[in-house]
Design brief:
Elements: E1 2-3, E2 5-10, E3 13-18, H1 26-33, E4 52-59, E5 62-69, E6 82-84, H2 98-105, H3 115-128, H4 134-140, H5 152-159, H6 169-172, H7 174-184, E7 188-193, E8 196-200, H8 204-213, E9 218-220, H9 228-231, E10 239-242, E11 252-254, E12 258-262, H10 267-273, H11 279-286, H12 291-296, H13 299-305, H14 312-318, E13 322-326, E14 331-335, E15 340-342, E16 345-346, E17 353-360, E18 366-372, E19 383-392, E20 395-404, E21 411-412, H15 414-420, H16 427-440, H17 451-471
Parallel strand pairs: 1-7, 8-10, 9-10
Antiparallel strand pairs: 2-3, 4-5, 4-6, 7-8, 11-12, 12-17, 13-14, 13-17, 15-16, 18-19, 19-20, 20-21
Helix pairs in contact: 2-5, 10-11, 15-16, 16-17
The structure holds flavin-adenine dinucleotide and FE2/S2 (inorganic) cluster (FES) (2 copies).
One FE2/S2 (inorganic) cluster binds next to loops.
Length: 479
């Protein structure tokens, strides 16, 4: 069924909007049409968390709650979801939600501008976890900035939450919400609003038919990059195909050779899955934006953006990942190594989309990755490095090193690899490999770092990788 109405659940009701403006942000809709002004606008670019709301979706007959940044979420993507705003937390009898009570009790608010965002980030944490350790609390609020209260009272409020607090008016009403969500689930959307078009197919076959007739249409996944062209660059996007409505592409599976990640899988799901295979990948993803960004953004979007500082890219290149591309007729498999052509340019042709990503499993290899940024949380990399090595009898038999932030595209350090390949790791080899990095890369100066600093960091990360391998006795380093 294809519809020109988007339908979503809010306050136990299904709300329908006919042909909404595909470029309108959810934040704008909440504040100007729903007239709920608890949700604030700070940065309008996903960086401060003031606009955080929670979206609930059906997954395997259960409700999955996710905090997102409404300032960079486009309104039609609300289709099939439940919208939960800060105003909705209070019970009908006026009782504050346990999260709100905790924020009051621990003095988690002063001017109050950031408070609705923190409350929603903590509410989403409460729904997702049953124990609230500091690590989880800090991660949950890492996408929220506060200028006056400071973070300690908010962390204390988070610590005071108990799993019994999960029983609230949302959990008591869950059956009704599931029934409402089932009614609006699985509907394809086609919107025509003045000169703007928006498609949200539910199946890949449908997607291909749309592409065939609309070859110039832009793909939208999490929107954590694309939506900023509307909110920051003030541009219009006239034709959009929303990919994340395609459940068929929201999967992670593996065989004994590789892991395959469907294009619409949120980064947050991948972050948990990959930990078992490549723990350093999870370590980097934990510092990727914020939970709000990772709840929406996808690896496919990260790859297609082709930013030289896209965090997944050097990691995937060093793991020799492949990208599966499709258009309405054909499927093509491309090595990620060959995917990036020049600054933000890729081999993707018009009408071609990323279907999935394959990440080889190297059982014997050592995989290490590092991100250096000005701020620890919610910041873009100055340099990101990934090392994938197989060491047999103290000798490096296989090596793939890739860096982000060192060139116009994420790139392998091929000369450095050449020095290390078939070598024993010792001071002399490390120093030669570090020198080779100067030939591999001529990084630029920009607001994040100078070229000189970047080269120095790249060398130090290589050395750090070797030292850590030694410390863990993964090899006898100074053979
Ligand atoms: C506050 C903030 C913090 C961030 N922090 C980080 C960070 O720490 N590290 C980092 O690497 N990035 C970061 N980003 C950038 C952003 O999150 C990534 O680029 C993200 O991965 C994009 O994925 P998406 O699904 O949101 O893509 P979208 O924004 O939906 O799309 C991005 C691009 O990819 C194209 N595209 C999307 N899906 C497909 C597909 N299936 N096939 C073909 N093309 C497609 C779109 O047309 C568009 O050109 C941050 C962004 C924000 C706003
Ligand atoms: S307004 Fe700052 S994250 Fe949305
Ligand atoms: S309470 Fe003022 S910004 Fe957080």
């Amino acid at each position: 069924m294809t519809s020109s109405f988007i339908s979503f659940v809010h306050k136990d009701q299904i709300i329908e909007i006919k042909n909404p403006n595909p470029n309108e942000t959810l934040l704008n809709y909440i504040r100007t049409k729903l007239k709920k002004t608890g949700t604030k606008e700070g940065c309008a670019e996903g960086g401060c968390g003031a606009c955080t709301v929670v979206l609930a979706e059906l997954k395997n007959n259960e409700i999955n709650y996710k905090a997102i940044n409404s300032c960079i979420t486009l309104l039609p993507t609300l289709q099939g979801k439940q919208l939960i705003l800060v105003e909705d937390l209070i019970s009908k009898d006026g009782t504050l939600h346990p999260v709100q009570e905790a924020m009051v009790k621990y003095h988690g608010s002063q001017c109050g501008f950031c408070t609705p965002g923190f409350v929603m980030a903590l509410f989403s944490m409460l729904k997702k976890y049953s124990k609230f350790k500091d690590e989880i609390i800090k991660d949950s609020i890492s996408g929220n900035l506060c200028r006056c209260t400071g973070y300690q009272p908010i962390i204390k409020a988070g610590r005071s939450l108990k799993s019994k607090n999960k029983i609230d008016h949302f959990s008591k009403n869950i059956k009704n919400t599931i029934n409402l969500l089932k009614k609006i689930n699985n509907k394809s959307i086609k919107i025509y609003n003045n000169d703007k078009k928006y498609f949200a197919p539910v199946y890949v076959q449908e997607l291909k038919k749309i592409i065939k007739k609309n070859i110039d249409t832009l793909f939208l996944s999490g929107g954590t990059d694309l939506s900023l062209s509307i909110t920051k660059e003030r541009k219009d996007i006239n034709s959009i195909i929303y990919m994340n409505s395609i459940r068929e592409l929201n999967y992670i599976k593996n065989n004994n050779k590789y892991i395959e990640v469907g294009a619409t899988t949120p980064l947050i799901d991948f972050e948990y899955y990959i930990k078992k295979y490549y723990p350093d990948f999870t370590k980097i993803l934990k510092r990727y934006g914020s939970p709000q960004i990772r709840n929406a953004g996808t690896i496919a979007g990260n790859i297609a953006t082709a930013s030289p500082i896209g965090d997944c890219l050097p990691l995937l290149i060093s793991l020799n990942a492949q990208v599966i591309l499709q258009d309405y007729k054909k499927t093509k498999i491309v090595l990620l190594d060959n995917f990036f052509i020049s600054y933000r340019k890729t081999v993707l042709k018009k009408g071609q989309f990323i279907h999935s990503i394959r990440i080889p499993l190297f059982e014997k290899n050592i995989f290490k990755a590092y991100k250096v940024s000005k701020r620890f949380d919610d910041d873009i990399s100055s340099v990101c490095a990934a090392f994938n090595l197989e060491i047999i009898k103290n000798k490096i038999e296989v090596i793939r090193i890739a860096y982000g932030g060192m060139a116009a595209i994420p790139k392998r350090a091929k000369l450095c690899e050449k020095i290390l390949l078939n070598s024993f790791i010792n001071d002399e080899t490390i120093n030669k490999a570090k020198e080779a990095l100067e030939k591999d890369f001529k990084p630029i100066n920009d607001m994040r770092a100078s070229g000189l600093y970047r080269i120095e960091v790249a060398k130090n990360l290589l050395e750090k990788c070797c030292v850590e391998i030694k410390q863990k006795n993964l090899i006898g380093l100074y053979a």
